[in-house]
Amino acid sequence: MRNIILLMSCSVLAMAGVKDAQRLYNQKNYNGAIAQAKKSTNEYSNPLLHLIWAKSAKALGNNLEAMSAYERVVMLDTHNIEAKKELARTYAVLGKHKLAIQITQELKEENVEFEEIKVANEKEVSSNFKSKFTLGLGYDNNVNVHNDTGELDTFFGTTAHTNKLSSFFYLGVANIDYLKEFENNIYLRASLNGYYKVITKESDYSIYLNTLKAGVGYYKSGQYNFYMPLSYSALHYLGEDLLRIQSIDPQIDYMINDNFIASINGKFEKREFKTDRDRDDKSFAVGATLYYKMDKNYLFLDSEYQNYTNDSNNYQDFTDKTTYTFVVGGGYVFANDIHALATYKLRISDFEDDIGTVLIPNTQVREDTYHQVNLKLTKQISDKMSVFVENEYALNDSNYIPADYTKNALMIGINYNY
After folding, report:
1. CATH number at residue 189
2. DSSP characters for 131-178?
3. Which domain, by its residues, includes 178?
């Protein structure tokens, strides 16, 4: 008799977990519903618990967590039409088009209306291409990245140096991405990116950068992703067609769990200066990133080691160097339509050349420490459009006086996603 009472008590407690999760979901307390579902371990075999979990994650915009929960529902209840429909939609949003089509075919076999299949497939086709455009207006207090005139005159022993140049600027950014999935979880991904910063006061300091990147990858859903892209960039700066950049950037992403993602990446890069080939260099880099997602908010830590060497027969000073870069940042959602991003970047550069000149010898080796702080606030004004305000402060602390500077840029702008 005691055993029967115990079993009945366990059943009541188990159902209480589902009922509490449902109650929290009905109250639109989606974080609470997910927390309740996670701790109701004795009800993990109940597909209803995972369905509530999935719908709550979807409501919060956590598509990866929603996908995992919908997958669990379908594993436990293979004929759950609601879960399959939402899983197909979630796959399409995440760019997993082959999986979305696979689910829609299963729905078709279960006599789901054809219109449902048609809509899902149309979404899958249109999501192959994605684009984002940004327009901005800002003010930069040091567009020529200079130290103060007095410092430069003292260092070089002359009085012919220009001061810092401040100016308004216009910014235009265009990103077009293409993703095509094949069988066996293999995919092709390509992107075309344009970055254009037009300085109103002195056009020579305007920046025009175009980058084409393409590569193949392989993934296992919810576990890992490998991507091997090649990229080619062209930079116009200082009033001339300045340089070309070619690189190979392999990357491996590993999903530790629904909240943690770790990445390891490498890079081999070659730069060719169009008008001064003696400045050509090449570099290799290795890096790692740890990303942590908390509901709608997130934190990340990025690190990179990079080594540069001269790639010409006529060596130029300050070409050979080693850099260590660390970036920490996070995003915070104040409301469904307002979110903030803050990042801090630290880059330590060790050069192989001293800071002396012909007139002023100095055997001290050059060392730079670069700090950069970015603060950005974005407000969503529609599904495809948002406005933002952003401030960037940078300081390069160097014992080589011409490279010692500070600058600040404030910008307002608008984003459009298509």
Report:
1. 2.40.160.60
2. EEEEEEEEEES-TT----HHHHHHHHT-S-------EEEEEEEEEEEE
3. 130-417
Q: How far is CA 19 from the centre of its chain?
A: 38
The owner of tokens 């009945």 is 8
Domain boundary among 72, 106, 126: 126
Please measure the distance between the N-terminal and C-terminal CA atoms of the chain and give it in whole angstroms.
Answer: 65
The Cα 168–Cα 334 span in angstroms is 30
Look up the pTM and report it. 0.70
DSSP reduced 3-state for 313: coil
Closest residue by Cα to residue 243 from 212, 274, 204: 274
Count structural domains, the chain. Answer: 2
What contacts 24+ positions apart, CB below 8 Å, involve 298-307? 298/330, 298/331, 299/328, 299/329, 299/330, 300/327, 300/328, 300/329, 300/330, 301/326, 301/327, 301/328, 302/326, 302/327, 302/328, 303/327, 306/267, 307/283
| Banded pLDDT at 357 (limits 50, 70, 90) | low
For 298-315, how does the pLDDT look when each residue is reduced to its tens digit (9 = 90+)? 999 999 999 999 877 776
* pLDDT single digits (tens) 202-218: 899 999 999 999 999 99
Residues 135 and 10 in one domain: no
Instruction: Tell me, yes or no, whether 102 and 155 share the same domain.
Output: no
Residues constituting the chain:
418
What is the identity of the amino acid at 207? I
13 falls in which pLDDT band (50, 70, 90)? very low
- 3-class SS at 240? strand
Residues 6+ apart with CB under 8 A from 246: 230, 231, 232, 233, 269, 270, 272
> Roughly what angle, to the nearest 10 degrees, separates helices 47-59 and 81-93?
40
Residues 138 and 17 reside in one and the same domain: no
Helix (H, G, I), strand (E, B) or coil at 202: coil
Of the candidates 79, 80, 58, which has an alpha carbon nearest to the alpha carbon of residue 69? 58
Whether the predicted pLDDT of 359 surpasses 60: no
Looking at the fold, whether 181 and 74 belong to one and the same domain comes out as no
The three-class DSSP label of residue 274 is: coil
Do 287 and 150 belong to one domain? Answer: yes
